[in-house]
Write a structure and sequence with these properties.
It is built from four helices and two strands. By secondary structure, the protein is mostly helical. The chain has one domain. The chain has a two-stranded antiparallel sheet with strand order 1-2.
């Protein structure tokens, strides 16, 4: 005998295959809601370094904890978006670029020391 979850999964699969345009529209609405929420979140949090919060386009999620699964803006479900945002802080693009350039430089210097390359 089938479980409720199996029956529900079958009904969803059947509906998706019978109504592909409606399914695509449903997904697009959900993705747009997620993006709207993430933009509001970025503006309300502001840049952790300089405090900028005027426009969500100029703010980015900077992964500082755990492994980056994929870009937060590419998330298609609420669960995945929340899980990825928990690994991040909000930074403006300027502060984000500065932080990453410093990280790359420090990593390069560590590798130089490991390889015995002298600074010149």
């Amino acid at each position: 005998m089938s479980t409720w979850a199996e029956k529900n999964r079958y009904k969803t699969w059947k509906w998706k295959n019978e109504n592909p345009e409606a399914y695509r529209a449903k997904i697009q609405r959900r993705v747009q809601k997620i993006k709207d929420y993430l933009n509001k979140y970025k503006v309300s949090a502001g840049c952790i370094d300089c405090g900028y919060n005027a426009n969500p386009v100029a703010l980015a999620f900077d992964h500082i904890r755990g492994e980056k699964t994929k870009r937060v803006s590419m998330m298609r479900t609420w669960r995945a978006a929340r899980k990825e945002v928990e690994k991040c802080v909000v930074r403006c693009h300027n502060c984000h670029a500065i932080r990453h350039s410093l990280l790359v430089r420090s990593k390069f210097k560590v590798e130089e020391k490991k390889n015995g390359i002298a600074e010149g």
